[in-house]
TrEMBL record:
Family stated for the protein in its record: Belongs to the Ntdp family.
Domain of life: Bacteria
EC number: 3.6.1.15, 3.6.1.6
HAMAP family referenced in this protein's UniProt entry, alphabetically: Ntdp (MF_01568)
Lineage of the organism: Bacteria, Bacillati, Bacillota, Bacilli, Bacillales
Annotated active site: R23
Cited function: Has nucleoside phosphatase activity towards nucleoside triphosphates and nucleoside diphosphates.
Keywords for this protein: Hydrolase, Magnesium, Metal-binding
Reaction(s) catalysed by this chain's protein: a ribonucleoside 5'-diphosphate + H2O = a ribonucleoside 5'-phosphate + phosphate + H(+); a ribonucleoside 5'-triphosphate + H2O = a ribonucleoside 5'-diphosphate + phosphate + H(+)
Enzyme class: hydrolase
Cofactor field: Mg(2+)
UniProt name for this protein: Nucleoside triphosphate/diphosphate phosphatase
Organism: Psychrobacillus lasiicapitis
Length: 179
């Protein structure tokens, strides 16, 4: 598998289990790229929905993708703190300037005080039937939600106190190089 280069601009492609495109983020700057982890940043980037609608992200975000975990984490930097939006998803793959994953509907929203809520359980149930998710998907996602909640409670990975500062500083460094 190819590895994205630090400072490189890539696209993020989200798919559904049936192979259809779900959403595309046009530009994300790679801050770290290894075979297992990609950390990126974007700010006011164009997002294209499957139905052709477009919108632009409102705040700077640090994005965390892992090749072994069934989730990705978007850290949204807002005036009143960092909000986290987690997509329960397949591990990522990277090729041809595109980071790709399958979105499995369930999402977790984490607030600056580290409280959280699980979202879209009804959407997961509906798509599980429509797209015939394999039965082991429930086990995989349950196990990964448990892992994610453990990370939140222990303040590990992107939830660690110094994570945002370190990667925001790296983002500003690369942004200045490109100006």
């Amino acid at each position: 598998m190819a590895i994205p280069t630090e400072g490189e601009m890539i696209q993020i492609h989200s798919y559904k289990h049936n192979g259809s495109i779900h959403r595309v983020w046009q530009e994300t700057m790679v801050l770290k790229g290894t075979k297992n982890i990609v950390i990126g940043a974007n700010e006011r980037t164009l997002v294209i929905e499957a139905d052709g609608r477009t919108w632009v992200t409102r705040e700077p975000s640090i994005c965390y993708f892992h090749a072994e975990h069934w989730f990705n984490i978007i850290c949204m930097l807002r005036e009143d703190g960092v909000y986290y939006y987690i997509n329960m998803s397949s591990p990522f793959v990277y090729s041809d300037g595109r980071l790709k994953y399958i979105d499995y509907d369930l999402d977790v929203k984490v607030f600056p005080d580290m409280t959280y809520t699980i979202l879209d359980e009804d959407e997961y149930a509906q798509h599980k039937k429509e797209m015939m998710y394999p039965t082991e998907m429930d086990v995989i996602l349950d196990r990964n939600i448990e892992k994610l909640i453990s990370w939140i409670k222990q303040r590990r990975g992107p939830f660690a106190p110094d994570f945002i500062e370190a990667w925001t500083n790296r983002y500003h460094f690369y942004k200045q190089l490109n100006e």
